[in-house]
Amino acid sequence: MKKALMALMLSSLFAASAAYAEDNSASLQISGTVMNGNSDCYIYVESSVSLSGQTDQLIPQGTNATAPKNLPISIGNVGGYCPAPEKLSIQLHAVADDADGTVIANNDVSENGAKGVGIGVFDKNKTPLNINGGVIPLNGVISEVNLQLVKLNGQTPTEGTVHGTLTLDLVRL
């Protein structure tokens, strides 16, 4: 009888504990930088670029650039140029367009934002590069990328403002 009473009391205690337990969630945002103190290499590039175009003269998405804005890219470190490893390249990352997903989307979705327009990224030969997978090989410490407004495939461009962000990641293989 005492054992049965004890078992009943313990099971009641566990049930009461489970009934009063609550999940309290917490959010944590983490950010930071990891660096190698001996060989910090940096990408130097203009912080902003201004592009313009007329809706009836925009090149179609996926075609070679005709009049791009050249953006020189330099690689270096605080003490001079970064010693180039055997293989060094830059990888492109951006929010992709909603047509083919190959150019930078227009982030201005307000009523003043251009529709059917993206920002094409091109190599030094004016050949299109795919964002989120496009790689620019470096020949020495200076390279380039070219930018031009493009008409998105299957969409009709309308005038307005265009904003986009491109992230360049230095990749060593």
Task: Provide the fold topology.
Blueprint lengths: L1 H19 L21 E3 L14 E2 L8 E8 L11 E7 L22 E6 L12 E3 L4 E10 L14 E7 L1
Q: Briefly, what is this?
A:
This protein has 173 residues and is of the alpha+beta class. The chain has 1 helix and 8 strands.
Provide the descriptors you would attach to this structure in a database record.
173 residues; alpha+beta; Immunoglobulin-like; 5-stranded mixed β-sheet; 3-stranded antiparallel β-sheet; 27% strand; Adhesion_dom_fimbrial; Adhesion_dom_sf; fimbrium
Structural account:
- Belongs to the fimbrial protein family.
- Residues 30-168 form the Fimbrial-type adhesion domain.
- It holds the Pfam family Fimbrial.
- This is Fimbrial-type adhesion domain-containing protein.
- With 173 residues, the chain is an alpha+beta fold.
- The chain has a single domain (26-172), classed as Fimbrial-type adhesion domain (Immunoglobulin-like, Sandwich), CATH 2.60.40.1090.
- Helices cover 11% and strands 27% of the residues.
- It is built from 1 helix and 8 strands; from the N terminus they run H-E-E-E-E-E-E-E-E.
- It has one helix spanning 2-20; strands at 42-44, 59-60, 69-76, 88-94, 117-122, 135-137, 142-151, 166-172.
- Strands 1, 2, 3, 5 and 7 form a 5-stranded mixed beta sheet that branches. The protein has a 3-stranded antiparallel beta sheet with strand order 6-4-8, with no helix packed on it.
- The longest helix is centred in the first third of the chain and has 19 residues, at 2-20.
- The model is unreliable at 1-23 (pLDDT under 50).
